[in-house]
Automatic annotation (TrEMBL), chains A, B, C, D:
Entry protein name: Ion transporter
Record bears the keyword 4Fe-4S: no
Keyword terms of this UniProt record: Ion channel, Ion transport, Membrane, Potassium, Potassium channel, Potassium transport, Transmembrane, Transmembrane helix, Transport
Pfam families per record: Ion_trans
Membrane topology per record: Multi-pass membrane protein
TM region(s), chain numbering: 21-42, 54-77, 98-122, 159-180, 192-208, 220-242
InterPro entries linked: Ion_trans_dom, VG_K_chnl
Species of provenance: Pseudoalteromonas haloplanktis (Alteromonas haloplanktis)
Subcellular location: Membrane
Main location: membrane
Length: 315, 315, 315, 315
């Protein structure tokens, strides 16, 4: 028999017998976060802020209350969560560990600005905008985004190198255009940092056009930089493209390995099938692909199972 | 012996003995749709609309009549189509099922605005533009586009995640530039939604340049956002690139599997060759590639299965 | 013993014993074409055209004479070229076949405008610019470009589909912005074709900024279109990226097949090594990669060469 | 026992027992280079240059002294470095070889402008900017960047071909827009080189918008060029994406080969493990991937080599 705290933990994680109701709570919270973000964005429009002052206030107080209750419930029940239960330490340490986990900090940031605004009164607008940080609460719910972020993390070395190349080209481009256009347009290319605005807009192919070289030499130099911009854009794109391909391959291999392991005794029972289905969802593979992997592993087993010479099983 | 309805169904699908004449009908309809779209676009130019009023009207009436006839014929003969024939339900249900299929709805949308314009008379121009929806009738004819759209569908999870990351960065960027430039350019960055126009143009590297930050801090922040824009553009591109690669691989594997299956008895008869040729077209593989796959599967079977000298199986 | 025509053919193709001298002629012609293109571009600057009139004229006459001689020599010797020699038809037909080959047409286009200018006198400037077409003469010399163009050709189906999607989005975008901004900016969004200029610049992320929506609704719609632009740019990029990967793989496979075939008798003689080296260059593989392929095929042979059961060679 | 010069070489290379202290020196130098670059960029702002004249001067003198000492130490100790030790030539030749190595030239360029400024007095500002070249000193420290640059080098053939296609399209685009818009906007499209500025900004999707076609024909032509720009951007991106994928694959294969070789005697000793770990770092593979490769190679050896029951070899 589970106590209230354990049930709360299961409910908030959406595991076990509370999967359905946990799913509903998730959807409610996701909707609330989105409504909040839209409201905060619209509140910055002066006329809207004036007309619907009451509505915005009620929404804000209501949302923050719900988020606060969610935060407290999560904090209270965190010691019963699967990943903290297995830690061998006191409940206090577990709670502390939870408090400094990224998701808990995001949850805190979602309610902190409003709490501060209630007690401190000096600069309201500045804090108001920080309420937008509650958009990060959505990260909890998107698996595909976590996979995307993982790609970024795995390619971080290459991306930093790409960023470094970008920085070098950026500095040399600003320096070059500063030397060439400095005297003709002192208001636009008056210093290297000022010239960087042009170089940045050009190298990323944004190209605002508010600052452009006008001398023939500046335009030739600018033309070379626009050509380089294609390379600059190509590097991160290429890195991510190859990283995504790599991840797809890795996930397929991971799934095949899992199938291989499950097939150790030559057949798949229901538990193993459910486990594989769960893994399939987690890795984002299509059903068709998964079936193919299982089938090919099965046929591979029946073919290579016995020694060609003595007929004995090989494992 | 086939009756008229069955023949109409075959004609409109371009299958069986009517492949050639069905192909001609297809080309006629594609041309008609394109001419229609070009006419509607040109009709929005006031001078042209004035000069060639008669011609546009005749083209419109003629086209809509043809499309209406096509729609009625398709509706009438749909119960004899291959995919609906195999459904175990009454003809009425089949017709209903056809009516709510995407292609039937597109066909209806192609004629509806003009039909409405004949009976309702209040806002003509608005409806006139909706006639452009008949461009979607072209989806029926492009296999490569269907394959492209399939890529989008398969990557939909990741693309939505990418879109979500984009939305978060967009909101934070607009919010940041709003805080920084709000006081200096109240007409351009007067609210977060207004600042989003700049953020959107920057993060997608469109960079109109009609709204740009002017303060040093705003330009530093803007520079950071232009850098982020490269990442924003790289994510969908990378996802699609890896998805297209994956699809190419999958199609190749599918074809090899089909060849493997056909070769179960050690040889290919004419039926199987036609089946493989059909599959090759459907999967969009080159002839060279297909021949290679067949050859390698053939040689794998004949070469490695038995020792040529002692007749023992080799695997 | 070869006659003069055969030697000319070998010289112009750079084959056989004339490889070295043919290479020098190639470099001379490439340089001449480039100098020509630069000269034609610079000649459009009025002051330069005035000052260096004499020099431009001499260069033009000299170049055209050389190109004309080259064209005549190629035409004269074409019947002795390897690819035309093997055709079973009369010399006249071979010459005709050569005349309508793309490279011969390009060679003709390179000299035609100047020849016309000598005899016809009405609009000189128009023809002058067409002399730039001689830049296409360079296609003869670049293998990497031919490989690139092959990628385009192989993906042509998908690229046309991408282009078609682009066209549909373009028409819907122009139509939408025309409906929204037509009344506010009649000079910029006065008709759908006029609105296409904005839609084209936005969907390709060029973003000139000379025409932008100004109404709130127009900016929301414009924002959606900028988001779509990322997808539009991602499709061709993704297609080409996956196509290039595919080509790399195919070339590797082609090379491995060639190695496999050469190793039929279990060893590589000098002729085969030269043949493989030639193929390696043609396919643009690195030396390291080629060596690896050869080594792995060699070891595969020695391992699987004999039947496990009777010890006899397997092929 | 090592002498001072040998120790200096080890220290500067960060090898052997000086790995830790060498690492600290590296970090100090990297920081110094970055501070220098930032200072030079900020010095171009007139007000800052005026206010902090003293600080900039001290930083410059201090940095150049340190870089000069580093340069001299490297030059002195270069004959004891691993890669020069193995050369069979006199110390003088080794030093000469070091002097003309790219990294030594970069080190020299980092101190040369300031040294020149001390002795020559005519144009200070010009030389001052060249001090920025010391940013290239950072190349020594980034392995990921060296891998990126290798990708560029390996794809150089294709990239040059892409660049050539770009040049052809660029010239034809400028020529076309020159013909069309020359008479209407003589100040912007007065000559082909002037028209190139627009063509360059359009084909790279930068799209400044300072120069745009205004005639209907010019806009239609411009629209076609914007469409081509997507292809232009797609080529280098696709090339790099496929090149990065290829490199990932090659590195994986290289590592697997190394594991295979190490496992020749059926087990891994400590030396081999360290060797593999070193290789893993050099190739930038993840630990997880490396372990997988080792495990699969191990199991391939032990599982399939002999039948567990009858002891017969299986391949």
């Amino acid at each position: 028999m589970k106590n209230l705290r354990q049930r709360t933990a299961l409910l908030l994680e959406g595991n076990g017998e509370y999967r359905q109701i946990g799913h509903i709570i998730d959807i409610f919270l996701i909707t609330l976060i989105m409504v909040n973000v839209i409201a905060i964005v619209l509140e910055s429009v002066v006329t809207l802020a004036h007309h619907y002052k009451q509505a915005f206030l009620i929404l804000e107080i209501g949302s923050v209350s719900i988020f606060a209750v969610e935060y407290l419930l999560r904090f209270w029940s965190c010691v019963d969560r699967v990943e903290y239960k297995s830690l061998e330490c006191s409940d206090f340490k577990r709670r502390l560990k939870y408090l400094i986990s990224p998701l808990a900090i995001i949850d805190l940031l979602a309610i902190l600005p409003t709490l501060l605004m209630m007690f401190i009164t000096f600069d309201l607008r500045f804090l108001r905008v920080f309420r937008l940080l509650r958009i990060f609460k959505l990260t909890r719910y998107s698996r595909a985004m976590q996979l995307l972020l993982q790609s970024f993390r795995e390619e971080s070395g290459s991306l930093i190198a790409a960023f470094f190349i970008m920085a070098v080209v950026l500095i040399l481009a600003s320096c070059g255009i500063y030397l060439i256009e400095h005297d003709v347009q002192p208001d636009k290319f008056g210093s290297i940092p000022a010239a960087m605005w042009w170089a940045m807009a050009t190298l990323t192919t944004v190209g605002y056009g508010d600052v452009v070289p006008v001398t023939p030499l500046g335009r030739i130099f600018g033309g070379v930089i626009t050509l380089l911009s294609m390379g600059m854009v190509a590097i991160p794109t290429g890195l991510l493209a190859s990283s995504f391909s790599e991840q797809l391959r890795k996930r397929r291999v991971l799934f095949c390995d899992a199938v291989h392991e499950c097939l150790h005794d030559g057949k798949l029972d229901d538990d193993q099938l459910e486990h594989l289905e769960h893994l399939r969802c987690k890795l984002g593979l299509s059903k068709q692909e998964a079936n193919k992997a299982i089938k090919s592993q099965l046929s591979a087993r029946t073919k290579n199972l016995y020694c060609r010479h003595c007929g004995e099983r090989q494992d």
